[in-house]
Input
Amino acid sequence: MITLKENLTKLGYNGLLVSLPLTFKRIEYCTSLFEERVEEIIPTLDKNEKISLVGHSTGGLIIRHFLSKTKHTAKIDRSVLIATPNQGSQLATIAAKLSTTFTKVFKTLDSLHPNNIKKLNLKDISTVEVGAIAGNKSNLLLGKLLAEENDGRVQISSVNYYGLKDFIILPYGHKEIHHQFRTAELVDSFLRIGQFKR
Output
């Protein structure tokens, strides 16, 4: 996310990165850490200032989970989710079938199972517009395990969900999409006008 932050800085944003333990902890735990960080930032804002949220992959799910439960939605402007498995990860389903030990150790992966995404009870908040960017360059070995069009890790159909204000597909893979300046330009467009400028 450092590259995305640098690209957004070039476009005039003052970004903050939130480091989360996205390997061995469940989404719920990571959301609580994220919420603590947001609650530190809110008192520093000017009266009419709002926060925009941008997340890649599981980070996007943490943003959605945070928005579903926070009391601070009035201070959140818009949000962009990049390559986020909003419907869950088919790779997590495959991993669970291969070895329950694997998903017990890598708890974030277990959190990405479609059944566990449903348990998060993610709600759409009408006051916060959300846009999503998916990639379709399946340039990773794991992408070959997925039946549908994907970015090497996440199927496009999983990124899209009912309730998004806008959705766009870029020709990038999962590990590169958030490093591209074009992605930063689209994030900028959505944060400013509520749609991806094509």
